[in-house]
Amino acid sequence: MDHVLNIADSSIFTPYVYPASWSEEGALRQIVSLWLVTNLGAVLLFLGCGALNFYYVFDHKLMMHPLFLKNQVKQEIELSIISIFWMSFPTVAIFFWEVQGNSKLFDNISESSLGWPGVFLSIAGFLFFTDMCIYWIHRFLHHKSTYKHLHKQHHIFKIPTPFASHAFHPLDGFLQSLPYHIYPFIFPLHKAVYLSLFVFVNIWTITIHDGDYRIPGPLICLINGAAHHVDHHLFFNYNYGQYFTLWDRIGGSYRHPSALMGKGPHDHIRKLMAEAAHTQ
Ligand SMILES: [Zn+2]
Ligand SMILES: [Zn+2]
């Protein structure tokens, strides 16, 4: 985040926002700046990518499903914005710790002992590590001792839209984002790669809620897509994964997507419309 902070400082904060007497290195100024940048970045990413996905990818026929709630999109957006706001406090504490130089993030490829292959290895490592951690955190959030207090808020949306992607209880959202923050404190990672992966995971979260259930054939068994995740919203105890189906297979919670077997939300709507046309 130090690069983001430097860009924000040089282009906006130093010339237009803060008094000249407030040093860029001041801890309080850095925390306030990180908080502003985190909130603004997260909201713009969520609303921007969410809206593009909602208008160009999400099939609006899904809103005719009987389990689609009244004012659902409004509820999803409201819960997401509230969650982003509260999540930003512990998130900024971690970002500040990182900006202070306590992580294993590095600037130049030459600093990686494995060079470019090490960068690609770190991307694979990041995806594997975060997918594994989120799987187990997500399972913990479904445990009866925690479910109704935290994770239930995300599951009120049975037929999610892209805007459900960030609609969590703030503590639930933060716990599920924790693996992304922990990774660069354990493993070396290039700063630009980290930032790109952070944007990627936000977009991925949107796409698994976007109701586009198509997946290229050979990837159905490997990738946890929107078809898998809508079954998680509908049937709860299946497909907890984030990107891959690996940990669901290991943990015995894999369910082949209903939408790919002619029993998904679209099929249900088609059946209802056919019945309605028949009775007219
Ligand atoms: Zn869940
Ligand atoms: Zn979801």
UniProtKB/TrEMBL annotation:
<dbReference type="InterPro" id="IPR050307">
    <property type="entry name" value="Sterol_Desaturase_Related"/>
</dbReference>
<feature type="domain" description="Fatty acid hydroxylase">
    <location>
        <begin position="125"/>
        <end position="252"/>
    </location>
</feature>
<dbReference type="GO" id="GO:0016020">
    <property type="term" value="C:membrane"/>
</dbReference>
<dbReference type="InterPro" id="IPR006694">
    <property type="entry name" value="Fatty_acid_hydroxylase"/>
</dbReference>
<dbReference type="GO" id="GO:0016491">
    <property type="term" value="F:oxidoreductase activity"/>
</dbReference>
<protein>
    <recommendedName>
        <fullName>Fatty acid hydroxylase domain-containing protein</fullName>
    </recommendedName>
</protein>
<dbReference type="GO" id="GO:0008610">
    <property type="term" value="P:lipid biosynthetic process"/>
</dbReference>
<feature type="transmembrane region" description="Helical">
    <location>
        <begin position="117"/>
        <end position="137"/>
    </location>
</feature>
<keyword id="KW-1133">Transmembrane helix</keyword>
<dbReference type="Pfam" id="PF04116">
    <property type="entry name" value="FA_hydroxylase"/>
</dbReference>
<dbReference type="GO" id="GO:0005506">
    <property type="term" value="F:iron ion binding"/>
</dbReference>
<feature type="transmembrane region" description="Helical">
    <location>
        <begin position="79"/>
        <end position="97"/>
    </location>
</feature>
<feature type="transmembrane region" description="Helical">
    <location>
        <begin position="32"/>
        <end position="58"/>
    </location>
</feature>
<keyword id="KW-0472">Membrane</keyword>
<keyword id="KW-0812">Transmembrane</keyword>
